[in-house]
Structures are given as C-alpha cells and as structure tokens.
From TrEMBL:
Gene3D superfamilies: Winged helix-like DNA-binding domain superfamily/Winged helix DNA-binding domain. PROSITE patterns: HTH_MARR_2 (PS50995). Signal peptide: none annotated. SMART domains: HTH_MARR. It comes from the Bacteria. SUPFAM superfamilies: Winged helix' DNA-binding domain. InterPro entries: HTH_MarR-typ (IPR000835), MarR/SlyA-like (IPR039422), WH-like_DNA-bd_sf (IPR036388), WH_DNA-bd_sf (IPR036390). Residues 11-145 form the HTH marR-type domain. This is MarR family transcriptional regulator.
C-alpha cells in the first residue's frame, strides 16, 4: 500500500474520517483561541502571531502580511499600541523606518493560546494507547508531508 496516491484514491469513508479529525483539531484550535479573543480581536491576534513568529516588522511589511492597506493599518496599530500589545520603535538600519514590535502583554496572549492548544492536544493523546498513539503520529506525519506546508497567509486567517 506504500507509494504515492493516485488521484482516485481516498474513498468517501476515508475522506469523511479525515474531515472528522480536522473538525476535532479545529475545535481544539477554536477553544485555545477563546480566551485570547476575549481581550483582542481576531485581526489583532493575527498581527500578534506574525510579530511573535517573525519579530519586529516595518509597518508596510506587517500590513502586507496581514492583507491590509497601510493607510488604514496605522489606526489599527494605534489601537493595539494603546492597549499595550505592540510598540513602534525606530529601525536600527534606517532612521526613517519604524518597526512594530511585540510588547510583553501581546507576547503573553500568543503564548497562552499556544500553551492551551498544546495542553489540549496532550490531554487528547493521553487517552490513547501507546500503539494507537504511534499510529496517529505516523498518520499525521504522512498527512503533513502529503498536504505540504500551508502558506503563512492561509494560517493567518485563523490566527495561527
């Protein structure tokens, strides 16, 4: 059964099984974001995730990564800065460039959501036998390779 899959592979039951698993995973993701979304909006969380994963960004670059227009993005950043989530700072490479950096409060929101997601995954996996766990890990590794790495902008829709 090894080798590459043909375009016809994947019966209805197999596809439905994967769809059910994806719903279970999305439920975990949604629950892990619930607390964060009580203190920030999803677009704000998306910006925090970009800054947490990429470090300080020029305003225009950050706006582009989030699919925003720089002219309206400045007001969005004002609100985030006023909330203590991010800060503007001069770029060490250019006096004219301003970088947007994560503040500790913003970093803590991303970290907490990530920790909640990992804890929920850990809890689910603790209820699985060692044999099934090995199969799950192997299946997810195989699925991840087959699906490929999603584009960052795809994950940002969900704040991941």
């Amino acid at each position: 059964m090894g080798g590459s899959a043909s375009p016809q592979s994947g019966s209805y039951d197999e596809v439905e099984s994967v769809v059910r698993a994806s719903r279970a995973l999305m439920g975990i993701v949604a629950r892990s974001l619930a607390d964060a979304l009580e203190s920030v909006t999803l677009p704000q969380f998306r910006a925090l995730v970009v800054l947490a994963s990429s470090g300080p960004q020029p305003i225009g670059v950050l706006a582009a990564k989030l699919g925003s227009v720089p002219s309206t993005f400045s007001r969005f950043l004002d609100r985030m800065e006023n909330a203590g989530l991010v800060e503007r700072q001069p770029s060490p490479g250019s006096r004219r460039e301003i970088l947007i950096a994560l503040r500790p409060k913003g970093a803590a929101i991303v970290q907490e959501a990530t920790e909640q997601r990992r804890a929920a995954m850990r809890q689910v996996l603790q209820g699985v036998s060692k044999e099934d766990l090995a199969g799950i890990v192997a299946a997810f590794d195989t699925f991840s390779r087959a699906a490929g790495e999603p584009a960052p902008e795809t994950l940002l829709i969900l704040g991941l």
